[in-house]
Every structure is written in structure tokens, then in C-alpha cells.
Amino acid sequence: MDSFDEQLQKRLQARADAEAEEKRKVDEQDKIALERAERSATIVRGSAGIVFKNIAESLRIRGLEAESSVSSVEKLATIQHQATATLEVKTKTGPQKRGRIIATKHPQRDTINLNMSPNFGAIKDVEFEHTNKAGIEQAVQGWVLDLLDN
Q1: CA separation for the pair 26, 90 (Å, rounded)
Q2: Strand ordering across the sheet containing 123-129
Q3: 64, 112 in Cβ contact below 8 A?
Q4: Which of 77, 100, 96, 97 lies closest to 88, judged by CA?
Q5: Residue 88 gets which letter from DSSP?
Q6: Residue 138 near residue 51 (C-beta atoms within 8 A)
Q7: Whole-angstrom distance, CA of residue 111 vs CA of residue 39
Q8: Contact criterion met (CB below 8 Å) for 37 and 74
Q9: 1: helix, coil or strand?
Q10: Residue of 43, 35, 55 whose CA lies nearest to 112
Q11: DSSP, res 121
């Protein structure tokens, strides 16, 4: 039979090995989560981010206040990562009108969700393939016109 010191050393080594394996698994999960987050941010920036920037520029030229931005929020405790593109529009003259669209990538699909406030008619949320920039642009343009009309 092994001495107490030998048994203790074996148990401590087994525990250290188990902790090292758990750390390796967590590091691998973190790496995968960060890769997904980077892909999501790239998709949001490359689709809705570009559309929002172009529309904001067009609206400013026509005398409206419009700001577009792309941001990325990371919660390290849970390795959650949310990339968003935002378009804010408001009138400078006449009755005050303001609205905001927030675009996010769907967690399981390569699609963009647009959340509109105020609603576009009866529509609050709409989903597009991230490659469908023309569809995203048409929805945003329709929403801006509806915002100005109502």
C-alpha cells in the first residue's frame, strides 16, 4: 500500500490534471464564442451598418437629423456578444418626429433582425438575409417615409 504522502500526491495531481482539462475546455469554448461574435459583428457592420450609414447621410443632406452607429457589447462573464447597428432619425423643423431602428444578427442564423420604433405600420420587427442589402434599404426607406407621414 502506498504511503499517505504518495496517496496525497496522486490525488493532488489528479485534481490538478482535472482542473487543467476544465480550463482547456473553457478556453476552447471562449475561443469559439469570440469567433462567433466576430462573425456576427462583421455581418451586422457589412449589411445593416452600411445601409444605415448611407441612409443617414442621405437624410442629413435633405435636412433631417440622422445618426447611424455600429456598436458591440460584450459580457465577459457569460461570453455573450451582441453587435448592433442603429439608425436614429428626427426632424429639425415642424412637429417633432423621431424614430430608431436597431439591427442585430439572429443568434442561430445569418439573418438581420430590424427592430423599428415607432412601428412601421403594424410591423415592429422584420428579418432579412444579411446579404439582402436592397431589402434592408427598402424597409428602412419605407419606415422613414412612414415616420414622416404619421
Answers
A1: 45
A2: 65-75, 80-90, 98-105, 111-120, 123-129
A3: no
A4: 100
A5: E
A6: no
A7: 12
A8: yes
A9: coil
A10: 43
A11: T
Local confidence band at 108 (pLDDT 50, 70, 90 cut-offs): confident
Tell me the pLDDT tens digit for each residue of 69-100.
888 765 554 455 678 889 999 988 888 889 99
**pTM score:** 0.72
Structural domain boundaries in the chain: 4-149
Query: Residue 124: what are its φ and ψ, rounded to 5°?
Result: -105, -40
Helix, coil or strand: residue 77: coil
Cell of 145: 417615409
Which of 28, 106, 93 has the alpha carbon at shortest distance from 62? Answer: 93
- Report residue 132: phi and psi, to 5°: -90, 65
**In angstroms, rounded to a whole number, what is the distance separating the alpha carbons of residues 93 and 76?**
43
d(C-alpha 37, C-alpha 18), whole Å = 28
User: What pLDDT shows up at residue 74?
Assistant: 57
The arithmetic mean of pLDDT across residues 14-38, rounded, is 89
Query: What's the rounded Cα separation, in Å, for the pair 128 and 114?
Result: 8
Angle at 86 (CA atoms; ends 85, 92), nearest 5 degrees: 155
Residue 117 grid cell = 420604433
